[in-house]
Design goal:
This protein is of the alpha+beta class and 127 residues long. The chain contains 3 helices and 6 strands, in the order ααββαββββ. Strands 2-1-6-5-4-3 form a 6-stranded mixed β-sheet, covered by helices on one side. This is YybH family protein. InterPro entries: DUF4440, NTF2-like_dom_sf. It holds the Pfam family DUF4440.
């Protein structure tokens, strides 16, 4: 799952997510990458992996449609619409959607990885 074009990161993420492969997902992120849970709340490392695990535990596939990919040198801004829609194994319906704004960086090995995973996108903080 080596990504040499940042525009392919979302599709690669979808494949790993829908395969429920947390290790493959984790390889798509730099070790210090951050995940925005909601505006103003950011997790890294084990917290980021735990957040991803909680979405995987829903047992519902994700779809991502990349809107834009803007690249400058070794940095990319990816904007994409995502939907998690279906029925959990316990029968409960799930519908989560939004427009993510993510940042990726090309590493010294030439591969692209997420450094900021921001599923809430441009949502405003509550309060």
């Amino acid at each position: 799952m080596a990504v040499i074009d940042p525009a392919l990161l979302p599709d690669t993420f979808v494949a790993a997510f829908n395969a429920k492969d947390l290790n493959a997902i984790d390889r798509l992120f730099e070790p210090g990458a951050v995940r925005v849970l909601r505006p103003g709340e950011v997790v890294v490392g084990d917290g980021r992996r735990a957040a991803t695990s909680s979405f995987l535990a829903l047992g519902v596939p994700i779809e991502i449609s990349l809107r834009h990919s803007y690249v400058y040198d070794d940095t990319a801004l990816l904007i994409g619409d995502f939907v998690i829609d279906g029925t959990k194994p316990d029968g409960e319906r799930v519908h989560i959607e939004g427009t993510a704004t993510d940042v990726a960086r090309r590493g010294p090995d030439g591969l692209w990885r997420y450094i900021i995973d921001n599923p809430p996108g441009v949502e405003k903080a509550e309060g």
